Amino acid sequence: MAQGWGDGLPLIPPTQQRVQDFLIAGGRFPDELIAVLPPLRAECTVEKIAINAVMAGCTGDAMPLLCAAIEAMADPRFDLAGLNATTGSVVPAMIVNGSIRNRLDIPCQAGCLGGVAGRAVAIGRAIRLIMRNVAGQSIGSTSQSVYGTPGRVAGIVFGEWEERSPWAPLAERRGVGGDAVTVYGAMGTANICDVVANSADGFLDMIAKSMAYPGANGFLPSSAFAETLCVINPIWAEVIAKAYPRIEDVQAYIWDRCALPIDWFRPEYRDPIGNLGRIKPDGRVHLVPTPDDVLVMVAGGEGGLHAAMLHSWGTCLTVTRPVETA
Amino acid sequence: MTIILDPTASLVHDLAEPGPDAGVLRGKKIAIRIDMLWRSWDWVSEIWAEGLRAEGAEVTFWRSCGRTGREGEQAERDYGALLAQSDMAIVGLGNCGSCTSWTIADALTAAAAGIPTIAVATAHFEGLAHNLAKRGGRSGLRFHILPYPLDILPKEQVHDIARNHYRSFLRNFGVRSRLAEQSAA
User: Which of A49, A79, A145 to mutate to test the interface with B (most CBs of B within 10 A)?
Assistant: First the structure.
């Protein structure tokens, strides 16, 4: 902490020996450049990843996932420069697909968005330390986040429960099969609860309408476009898939109902939103421009009753990368 | 002996010089970069543009919109084309975290093109703006700082602020007064 390297929690000293052991287990060359990270615009090498990962309590076999995640976050589409500086309460969420979920003990079932014990906490923390120490993200200095979010300590790292999903894995639908990580700029997580619905349309109506609130990122009059993510529990997913076997139909359903009438917005908002061409002929404004911008995945416990919504930040676009293991 | 490795990375190169002065305005093409977020910056820059035009400059506005994906790639091209046709650039507004980040990024691009450049931010985000400029390798970037909060003020009040700041803005930009110009001539 005295060096300004930490997050307030105890750190494991990154001794030369520990870092060497990590690098050997990780199977990458230490001087390999993975990305240039803003706002510091500093070079993030494999060695820097290893040092921060050791401090976080990570093990070497997570190196391929860490490298893939950093590469994805550095993609210009992700707008890490803006994300790391914003007043918003955003953190890059990491969604893991493929068998690497099991090898790294990435949670996709009960408590997957936070609280379940496992190695994802250290993996997420390693990424957060890299953002502090390498990218230079620092509250009050380069980050202007008004509130921050608990996810800025140990990240949001979870998997898709592919075995219980009636649809193809999220990463595969985004063009990357097998082991993959998808990074998504998440303005925290929020719960959607329903103890009444018992049909696909009932569940989807509740999800879609809950996601549509005026202060959500997608409705910002300054945003020409945005994405959004909803996480559906496996119990609801099974019911929904019987009515909608195609994920595109689920996305379209949510997109259609995730909208607000323009007259819900005060008059001063209407012109800026209208100038973006976002008011449909029926007088509604959709949270996101197209059904493709609604990301849907399956994860969570078998208790059902809840879905999770993760609103996006700015015009940050989701990026999926393969996780390449030796 | 146990050796502890450094987890941080730093940028070593820095340009402390502000770059060329704006100098004489008459006959110059000035690009003003505005954005989707801040009506107050629209109001300030329209007042400043009046003044600049009165000095004989030609002013072109460019509005920064989505900066990611295809729209972002197009924005990069459009901004580059604008700078190629401009003699100087006024870039704003740093009035939040991400918009300050983009303001500085766009100002650094303009400065790197070798034209007189000034970034504009509000007081609350001044520290961030300087930090980002330094971390972007140009701590000497010119700045003009407007009061904060600005965007919640009515248009008339923002116009007054713009008028009150116009002369100090010109000084910060390195504009030579007509008097100095005549004297030099």
Answer: A79
C-beta of residue A244 within 8 angstroms of C-beta of residue A291: no
Tell me, what CATH number does B116's domain have?
Answer: 3.40.50
**Residue holding tokens 């996780």?**
A323
Q: Residue A183 in 3-state DSSP?
A: strand
Domain presence at residue A6: no
**Residue A7, in any domain of the structure:** no
**Buried/exposed A124-146: b ≥16 CB within 10 Å, e otherwise:** bbbbbbbbbbbbbbbeeebbbbe
Return the half-sphere exposure (C-beta side, CA atoms, 13 A cut-off) of residue B37. Answer: 18
Note down the domain range covering B119.
29-178
**Number of domains making up chain B:** 1
CB contact (8 A) between residue B102 and residue A48: no
A2 assigned to some structural domain: no
ipTM metric: 0.87
User: For residue range B65-93, what is the model confidence (pLDDT) as tens digits?
Assistant: 888 999 999 999 999 999 999 999 999 99
Find the closest chain A residue to B95 by CA distance: A87
Q: How many domains does chain A have?
A: 1
In a domain, residue A242? The reply is: yes
- State which residues form the domain around A277: 16-322
Is the Cα torsion angle B116, B119, B123, B128 positive or negative in sign? negative
Q: Looking at CA atoms only, how far is residue B141 from chain A in angstroms? A: 16
Q: Which residue has the tokens 């493929």?
A: A98
Instruction: Using CA coordinates, name the residue in chain B closest to A84.
Output: B98
pLDDT of residue B135 exceeding 90: no
B5–A77 C-beta distance less than 8 A: no
Residue of A nearest to B72 (CA): A77
Residue type, A60: G
Is B23 part of a structural domain of the chain? no
